[in-house]
């Protein structure tokens, strides 16, 4: 996976997180799962500069 691919996925997840939070206004299991996915992608990005 290229750095560009990871950045694109991060941006998509951030949008999902923001949209979900705007709708729910609370922390849900789905929101936690999206956050975990985002963390994993950020770690990938940091491991492969």
TrEMBL record:
Any GO BP: regulation of sporulation
Lineage, opening ranks: Bacteria, Bacillati, Bacillota, Bacilli, Bacillales
Single annotated GO MF: protein dimerization activity
Name this polypeptide is given: Sporulation protein Spo0E
One Pfam family hit: SpoOE-like
TM spans (from-to): none
SUPFAM superfamilies to which the protein is assigned, alphabetical: BAS1536-like
Species for this entry: Brevibacillus reuszeri
């Amino acid at each position: 996976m290229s750095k560009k691919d990871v950045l694109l996925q991060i941006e998509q997840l951030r949008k999902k997180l923001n949209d979900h939070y705007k709708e729910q206004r609370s922390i849900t299991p789905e929101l936690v799962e999206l956050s975990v996915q985002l963390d994993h992608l950020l770690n990938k990005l940091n491991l492969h500069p």
